[in-house]
Amino acid sequence: MTLPAIDGKSLFASKTALSLFAALLTYFLPAILTAAGIPVADQGQLIAAVSDAGPPVLIAMGIVFRSMTTRPVTTILPKSWQSGGLAVVIPVALALMITVPVLSACTTLTPATAASIELKADKALFIAESAYAGALVTVEAAVDSGALRGEDAAKAASIINEAYAALTAARTAHSVGKTALATAQAGDVATILASLAPLLNR
Amino acid sequence: MNAAQVIGLINSLGPIIQSVSTLAAAAASVSSSTDKAAIAAALKDIQAKNDEATARVLAKLSAAT
């Protein structure tokens, strides 16, 4: 079997490869923007915003990438649009379709704002850790007194394992700077711990 | 809950109140603080304690099952 030769031109002419390239670029865009001195609050937030913008954005990205790698963007337009004002307006409109949702999803942070967001995430995680610590104290006292045992003890162990997993996920997200995710997962810990209450109130 | 369990719980109240008071004081301190280094240190401390307490409580729950 002979595999077809793949060069850059044919690779980027493939719609699938274009979509993949666009998705990868979107994924790495926060890192690129950060390297360019434009801090991004949260990578997940950016990806969600681009996804919400939907297929037109991805198609526009694909068209622009194709024009960058194969031929000028105007040559893929109908011949009557390839000269005059439309030859300028259409590429600009396509570029805006990409940049507006992407940049609106980015938060250009001042150092003070960035520090404030990080501080809030630190506090949210601390509150989750405190709630978890409080739950452990209560459960331990219930076990020590003999009030929690048997099937209820097994259920409590399961809930604690689940809460600890959520707490670990929040810690991981926090440690890599995903502040929004860390805050959300910290909230999950409290929700999971709430299911201990019926076991302790029998 | 029988009488022995009630007595056990009452005996546990002291350490519980102490632990919860310590936690509440730490939470109040952290929530009003703007010192990132101090919050990071408090986080590290409570995380280490939680890791240790998780293993201990799970072992006790396992024994009580």
Can you give me a brief rundown of this structure?
The complex is a heterodimer of chains A (202) and B (65). Chain A is mainly α. Chain A has helices at 8-13, 15-35, 43-53, 55-69, 86-105, 111-145, 150-175, 179-194, 197-200.
Structure description:
The complex is a heterodimer of chains A (202) and B (65). Chain A has helices at 8-13, 15-35, 43-53, 55-69, 86-105, 111-145, 150-175, 179-194, 197-200. Chain A has nine helices and no strands. The longest helix of chain A is centred in the middle third of the chain and has 35 residues, at 111-145. The radius of gyration of chain A is 26 Å and the shape is elongated. By secondary structure, chain B is mainly alpha-helical. Chain B contains two helices and no strands. The chains are: A mainly alpha (202), B mainly alpha (65). The A-B interface holds A 115, 118-119, 122-123, 125-127, 129-130, 132-134, 136-151, 153-154, 156-157, 160-161, 164, 167, 171, 202 and B 1, 4-5, 7-9, 11-13, 15-16, 19-20, 23, 26-27, 30-31, 34, 36, 39-40, 42-43, 46-47, 49-50, 53-54, 56-58, 60-62, 64-65.
Blueprint of the fold:
The complex is a heterodimer of chains A (202) and B (65).
Chain A: H1 8-13, H2 15-35, H3 43-53, H4 55-69, H5 86-105, H6 111-145, H7 150-175, H8 179-194, H9 197-200
Chain B: H1 3-32, H2 36-64
